Amino acid sequence: MTVLVDADTKVVVQGITGHQGTVHARGMREFGTKVVAGVTPGKGGGNVDGVPVFDAVRDAVAATGANAACLFVPAPYAKDGLLEAVDAGVKLCVLVTEHIPFHDMLVMYHYARSKGVRIIGPNCPGVASPGKAKVGIIPNVVFRPGRVGVVSRSGTLTYEIVNGIKEHGLGQSTCIGLGGDPVVGTSFVDALPLFERDPETDLLVLVGEIGGTAEEEAAEMIRTQFSKPVVAYIAGRSAPPGKRMGHAGAIISRGRGTAASKVEALERAGARVARFPYEVSEIVAELAAKAGRR
Amino acid sequence: MVKLTEGRGKELFRKYGVPVPSGTVVSTAPDAEQAVRSGKVPLPCVVKAQVLAGGRGKGGAVRFATTPEEARAAAAAILGATFQGETVREVLLEEKATIVRELYVSFALDRGARLPVLMVSARGGVEVESVGDVDIDRQPVEPFPGLAAFQRRRAARVLGLSGALGADLDRLLGNLYRLFDREDAELVEVNPLAVVGEHLLALDAKVIIEDDASFRHPEYAAIHDDRTELEEIAREKEIAFVQLDGNIGVIANGAGLTMATLDVLKEFGGAPGVFLDLGGTDDPQKVTEAFLLMAKAKPHAVFLNIFGGVTRCDTVAKGLVAALGTVPASERFPLVARIRGNNEAEGIAILRAAGVASVPDLRESAQLVVAAAKGAA
Q1: Which of A167, B213, B349, B356 has the highest CB neighbour number within 10 Å of its CB?
Q2: Which residues fall within 8 angstroms of residue B292, CB to CB, at 6 or more apart?
Q3: Residue pair B207/B185 in contact by the 8 Å Cβ criterion
Q4: What is the C-alpha to C-alpha distance for residues A184 and A109, in angstroms, rounded to an integer?
């Protein structure tokens, strides 16, 4: 396994009989992913495009050996769906569902962690390693196998930037869309060590957004524990001051969380910070040319 | 997020057993007088504007009364007045407390730790941002097993509360955490939590409820705070829509791409006036509605910047073309489109048939729309 997914990844799609589930199960298979099962309670016994559907994740895992789950379960039922996947023994859960209350996410995260299960998301596009596997919804068209790693809090902005890398004649090793919710299963500091260890990643692109302090924490790790070149972009430099922060939120972040604070922390850590999305692939191409590899 | 006024916050406090002064919320001056005469609100009392803005005391939005007539006059002076852009529609009347000490207590989310955090400070009654880190005690709360007794004891020690007051705090923290958890709050803050005689009283209540939990809390759906009329319509249609000061309308999909688009427009001298995040949709009808909503905001030019994933380019193109057909010629505005990603070729073909070109380069398309907005101004 390189970063999170590879040719041995076998995916069970929870919510496969819904529109999104069906469409993206198909997209994953077109990417070359082994989609071995689907789960929709009450619809077991059928199939979607030839993928067998089960009533319970436990049944799907027993019958197919699925080791990763991709969830398209509506928000009110997402917590239960995830607990079920963890209970069934899958090791990776990609939670595409958006609008999950963070109180639910707190329970999901701490339960999954206690069982050694990694969650990507919620409200995220998932993970993809071109030529190997994809668990999630990132459009297949943006990818090309290569040696640039991408980790991002955004969705479509990730596609934009990954596509830019491809248009510069380069490719990606693994791309992880972490999701931008207040509580995520995998944050930048959780993902960085995976790329540090990955022999197929030469350079990392980090795409952040204003709000929270995940980028500042990532910068600290990049400074002390990350040896590969990093190109970063922070969206929202011109956004009006956030309405989200309550008083207590302001104490927790203590002046951090602004675009300026993130850019400064990343630059101090030695990252090249792009000012605009199109500059990311330009800097990546420049660094790749200097390193003499494509 | 739904910010509750102090009065609504205190209703929740009462429901969860967090002690608050005797009081009531009224919306007319005669009702204020009646609330005092009937004994519902003991004298002397405080009359507080129910607005979300801070600094009410300094702004004249908090007054005192010692007679029913004074309560009426205070309410009359505050109701209908405007504080930091908010018009006062309700006042809270409650018994004035004789404060011995002012403390600070809150539960909030620590995103980095992925845990709720209990924060307490002996320095309450002032803006908490002005309190130094050393004076605020933080304890993360694990979802299993929840707020533990030893954590409540520690909070009591930090706040210097013992005996009956310590027992009061123990109960209060347990109840406040229950409220935070069950009501899906982002923030529950009591500042000040006052020592009044031998008891604790929550003299203010700041509660913010998370939007995403509305499926199990429909009771908060009707509360809208600082949204504009168009923002309210957008919310009903589940479109993220924010009005700013500029004149360029931006329609994009995804928060990150929307923000990046604003950054690029600013760089080229543009001033975004409205941004509208389509989110993920493959329903052309939703795109049409979004576009018509944008038209109502009367932008000088519109930039459509879509990267197709869940939202396919052809879906957006179909929705856009349908909308263009219904906007009267007098309300038309220059449109620059950039659609990339899933089903890009199909989308571009649909737009071209309707006379709209898609400019694939972000720099170039952004400069075009900035120029178009200047031309229309």
Answers
A1: B213
A2: B323, B326, B327
A3: yes
A4: 8
Assign a CATH topology to domain A10-120.
Answer: Rossmann fold (3.40.50)
CATH of domain A138-291: 3.40.50.261
pLDDT at A246: 37
Q: ipTM value, please give it.
A: 0.90
What whole-number distance in Å separates Cα of residue B21 and Cα of residue B26?
16
Reported as a single tens digit per residue, the pLDDT across B265-314 is 999 999 988 888 887 777 888 889 888 888 888 899 999 999 988 888 99
Residue B282 CB: number of other CB atoms within 10 A? 19
Task: Report helix, strand or coil for B370.
Answer: helix
Mutate which: A140, A141, A237, A238, vs B, most B CBs within 10 A? A238
Mean pLDDT of chain B: 91
Q: How many cross-chain Cβ pairs, A to B, lie less than 8 Å apart?
A: 185
- Three-state secondary structure call for residue B126: coil
Boundaries of every domain in chain A: 10-120, 138-291
Q: Are A257 and A210 in contact (CB under 8 A)?
A: yes
The CA distances from residue B208 to A92, A106, A275, in Å, are 33, 18, 34
Query: pLDDT exceeding 90 applies to what percent of chain B?
Result: 66
Q: Which domains are seen in chain B, by residue range? A: 22-95 (3.30.1490.20), 101-219 (3.30.470.20), 229-376 (3.40.50.261)
Instruction: For residue A154, give how far its alpha carbon lies from the nearest alpha carbon of chain B (Å).
Output: 5
Q: How far is CA B240 from the centre of its chain?
A: 13
| CB-CB neighbours of B289 under 10 Å | 19
The reply to whether residue A248 touches residue B106, judged by beta carbons under 8 angstroms, is yes
B230: pLDDT strictly greater than 80: no
CB contact under 8 A, A238 and B186: no
Structure tokens at B49: 């504007």
Across the interface, of A20, A159, A235, the residue whose CB is closest to B307 is A159
Is the Cα dihedral A270, A260, B257, B220 positive or negative?
positive
A10-120 and A138-291, same CATH topology: yes
Residue-wise pLDDT tens digits, B107-145: 999 988 999 999 999 999 888 888 888 999 999 999 888
Interval B241-261 mean pLDDT: 87
